[in-house]
Amino acid sequence: MEIDRKVVEHVADLARLELEPEKIEPMVLFFRDIIGHFRILEDCDTSHVDPLSDTGGAACPLRADEPSLWGNIQEALDSAPLREGSFFKVPAIEGEEGHDEV
Amino acid sequence: MKFDGLDASQTASAVAKGELSAVDVVTASLQRIKRLEPQLNALITVMEHEALERAALVDLKVASGGDPGPLAGVPVIVKDNMCTHGVRTSCGSRMLEKWVPPYDASVVGYLQCAGAVIIGKSNMDEFAMGSSTEHSAFGPTSNPIDTSRVPGGSSGGSAASVAAGYVPLALGSDTGGSIRQPAAFCGVHGLKPTYGLVSRWGLVAFASSLDQIGPFARSVADIALAMDVIAVPDPRDPTCSRGERPSFRNLAESPDLKGMRIGVVREFLGDSLHPDLRQAISEAESFLASSGCGIVDISLADSASFGLPCYYIIAPAEASSNLARFDGVRYGHREDAENLVCQYTRTRATGFGEEVKRRILTGTFALSSGYYDAYYLTALKARKKISDEFERAFSSADIILMPATPSLPFRKGELMDDPISMYMSDVFTLPVNLAGLPGMTVYAGLNAEGLPLSVQIVAPRWEDSRLINCAAVLEQHFGRPSSAMGGVY
């Protein structure tokens, strides 16, 4: 598989990350290095191995499904960069500059 | 009586008896911070006002005859990825530069209930991604032992704070070595508990199947004391075990290793290990043998070969998902834009630093359509093999002895342009996270240049007490790190 600008730009798009044009080439080189390193795993015989998604430590017991009140709603809302009343404010999904919508 | 040089247990005891006031202790700690911080930059936020207020409350409790708790008046520093109600929690990132959490992390609450006084939030690699504390939006931290060198990372600020004597005790988080590697570089003890032993509620997530909170200290007794306080069941964290915990402090007071089998990993002692660190392992091995332990050779071939690529697929994959929440809507940094998607992409472009972007992109790639099976799924299978390999090793050994780091602390800037070489500095610590095991860096003296040496000990899951026991024995041989070692003084 060839790692080029197109691959990095596609991945950046998936990650919702804008990459400045001058940062793309260094990222291509990093991708080539790190993916080359990942290929060491081709020597790992995983043919009869189940994937491990957790370390089997804690039992992960579920809490009782009971509603409870969060004490600091105002403080949580205060963290928002932009809000209106009790709503977070964002630009229009397909808007032009200066048209914030709630 | 003076606070300088006292450990946490001695400080708490003196405060509880009224021999020292908590306000005097905190004042002395703040003075040391003011004096050394211009050289070290170990802290992102100093909580002077809050700390003095809380210290006064501890003194009031002592004066009124109440129980001030096992950490009465002990100044403590927590890594800046643990939420503190009303105090900025930045994660070393521009993204959260001004974020003030509306709640405390569970561990912060536990410390305060035990009488501890949180005095500051420590510097760290952004979102805990790094091994040198150079990837911080707040500038790099210097190693107190030699300020031209890095303190390790990502919890470098916590390790440096303990090494410099700001505080006797600090908390860090460890996803692939972020407690044990900086402990090794700064010449202090650092414990990464078993995954699930300490609550992570209120810890900003990096890689959820690997992250764990743990203590740094200059004595094993203080590591044990901290564990007694923070390792408690927490229903708010579903991965936190509800099982019983031993008294770690009792174990530290009367260590006994007779009959224990110590497994030495010969694969990790090759040419890539600094000779002084190889010597430290050899010295630890001889002392443990003379303390009544049996020594056995064990093999961790899969960990040695596949640990690094396995970790650097799984951790970034989880990070790419966890960090998706930083979009400029609910909290943190935001860039204005003409539409919602542009707001997300620009906010993340300017809010995250270079290393975080590298990890998010690597993780997104490993999870993306067409590559998931080849990378992420294969890494999960390799992780299973690594976990099974440790389990087999523990059938012939009770504790594993191995290096914490391949090198001594490197110089600032040395690896900044070579991310993969930087990743290599976690080669001995990250297999322990992949297997969910407890691991501890134990101080092992200084080399001829005055740089710190260390060894790492690893135990089976939930057997953290064995590490406390073994570390207390090793401390009898190597001694305790002093709060006045090295160049910063």
Tell me what you see in this structure:
The complex is a heterodimer of chains A (102) and B (489). With 102 residues, chain A is mainly alpha-helical. Chain A has helices at 5-14, 21-38, 73-78, and strands at residues 83-84, 87-88, 90-91, 100-101. Chain A has a domain at 5-43: Histone, subunit A (Orthogonal Bundle). In chain A, the strands form two sheets. Chain A has a two-stranded antiparallel ribbon. Chain A has a two-stranded antiparallel sheet with strand order 3-4. By secondary structure, chain B is an alpha/beta fold. Helix content of chain B is 40%, strand content 12%. Chain B has helices at residues 8-16, 22-40, 48-63, 106-113, 156-163, 180-186, 220-230, 248-253, 275-290, 301-322, 340-351, 354-367, 372-393, 419-424, 430-434, 464-478, and strands spanning 43-46, 75-79, 117-122, 169-174, 189-192, 212-217, 261-265, 294-298, 399-402, 439-446, 452-458. Chain B has an eleven-stranded mixed sheet with strand order 1-3-2-4-6-5-10-11-9-7-8, sandwiched between helices. In chain B, helix 9 links the parallel strand 7 (261-265) and strand 8 (294-298). Chain B starts with 7 loop residues before the first helix and ends in an 11-residue tail after the last helix.
Quick summary of this structure?
The complex is a heterodimer of chains A (102) and B (489). With 102 residues, chain A is mainly alpha-helical. In chain A, 33% of the residues lie in helices and 8% in strands.
Mean pLDDT over the residues of chain B: 96
Report the average pLDDT across residues of chain A: 86
How many helices of chain A? The count is 3
Shape of chain A: flat
Number of domains of chain B: 2
Q: What percent of residues of chain A adopt helix (DSSP H or I)? A: 25-40%
Q: How are strands sequenced across the largest beta sheet of chain B? A: 1-3-2-4-6-5-10-11-9-7-8
Low-confidence stretches of chain A: none
What's the story with the biggest beta sheet of chain B? Answer: 11 strands, mixed
> How far apart are the first and last residues' alpha carbons of chain B, in Å?
22 Å
Kindly estimate the percentage of residues of chain B that lie in beta strands according to DSSP. 5-15%
Shape type of chain B: globular
The total count of strands of chain A amounts to 4
The SSE string of chain B, one letter per element, is HHEHEHEHEHEEHHEHEHHHHEHHEEH
CATH level-3 fold name of the largest domain in chain B:
Amidase signature (AS) enzymes
